[in-house]
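Consider this:
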Amino acid sequence: MTSRLCETFLRGSLRFSTIRKLSAATEHTPLYLRVSGHQFSLLLKDPDQPENAKSLKVVIVGAPNAGKSTLTNQLLGRKLFAVSEKVHTTRSRAVGVLTEDETQIVLLDTPGLTTPIKAKKHHLEESLLVDPFASIKEADLVVVLVDVSDKWTRSKLDYEVLKCLALNSDVPAILVLNKVDLLKNKTLLLDITAQLTEGVVSGKKIRIRGAEKPCEKLAAKPHSRHTEPHSESMKDGASQEGQEKNRLSQEELKALKSRRGWPLFKDVFMLSSIDREDVETLKRYLFEGAKPGQWQYHSEVLTDQGPEDVCINTIREKLLQYLPKEVPYSMTQQIEIWKESEDGVLDISIKLYVKKDTHMKMVIGSGGNLITRITQEAENDLMKIFLREVRLKISAKLRK
């Protein structure tokens, strides 16, 4: 009760402070700041929940490039999160909010689970090593997404995903097999399901050809969340705080490496995240699973991302799509101009800072063709997201 009162007081104080600052803002305040301020104010609004409110917090986890952001966009019915065929498009946890009638679903789109070595290789922020594990602790349901079109990874759950599940075995989880449309031999889905569930769904054995005998449940053995670190990751300089490897014993980590699946899934879905009908089935399941509880956000909120974050991520999506190997991962962006012109168009100017001269030539392209194409495609996407005319300019500069 005390913590709830403190939270209410803090929310009210922040809201009053924000509104006072926004009211004091003059017409000369840059649109960039005013839009961000409005978004912040909206997030601080008390949820306008009905009397019989229901809610469900869903965290979507999986290996990099499993299709988490695509699925989140489809569930929301609007493209709010960047999507790319390259790994690590999502750089930090982002929230999508789906509110219908008396029910609110909060979707936590997390970065692909990774390791310190891979994070260093792709110039990733250290937060990417922690965000998914922090998100799962506050979830009501975990959606484990697996790309069945990848023949190298589809028959075994990612090791980092298994660690997430082992540390949070009390949180209900479902298995979602994604990209089934790309699988020519659909009978393989039965074998994949058997392997990833260890032949058990919702506590019952499933009769599927090739089903493996359930392994001893790791979750059945209590483990301390304060176990002394035994992981090799500490050698890589990863932060000790929030690292899940430090919370499992060496014995438990070793046991996880021999596992292919998880026997505690309550349900299994097979879908294509780009198929609206498939996604609707999963969406109905989430709404049916919502429990009586307070909403976290006002019904007008679609995401916790600011407009500038959406813009940066949209451009990053294009850079990942068109630039090879490590080039897009080593680049940074800076918003130079964000203003509304006299004709009502939102003018945005972005500066790309490039690490090497060779990278600069790749970004510009022959005769400036590539940077022009990236600009045009990003501009079109931003107009659909912001529902207004956008004039985007992207330039590149060699980082000194």
